Hints:
Largest sheet: 2 strands, antiparallel
Protein name: Ferredoxin
Bound molecules: iron/sulfur cluster
Distance between the termini: 29 Å
Keywords: 4Fe-4S, Iron, Iron-sulfur, Metal-binding
Function: Ferredoxins are iron-sulfur proteins that transfer electrons in a wide variety of metabolic reactions.
Strand content: 15-25%
Order of helices and strands: EHEEE
Shape: globular
Cofactor: [4Fe-4S] cluster
Strand order of the largest sheet: 1-4
GO molecular function: 4 iron, 4 sulfur cluster binding; metal ion binding
Structural class: mainly beta
Helix content: under 10%
CATH architecture of the domain at 2-53: 2-Layer Sandwich
Amino acid sequence: MYVVKEGCPGCGNCRHVCPTGAITQDGIGVKIDEKCIDCGICVHYCPVRLIEAGPVPGQAVTTQEAPPRRKTVRNEPERGEE
Ligand code: SF4
Ligand code: SF4
């Protein structure tokens, strides 16, 4: 399940793109609930990069230590197959 780090200004981008409605308003910011299917779409729509993959069950990692699931390359078009 993906998680939202602290400091979300609540722009709403992620809520609008989430296909399962897993992201809901939580005060100023948003939170992700168990409806998350780990599609990763929301990550690409967060302007302040606050969404990341949460800890994998069974692994002792914290939210801050969990590596991102996908690398994003700025200012370059999406690559197809190499
Ligand atoms: S990873 Fe996908 S299902 Fe999970 S909160 Fe983000 S957009 Fe929604
Ligand atoms: S896209 Fe990012 S900044 Fe906007 S509401 Fe979602 S987590 Fe917050």
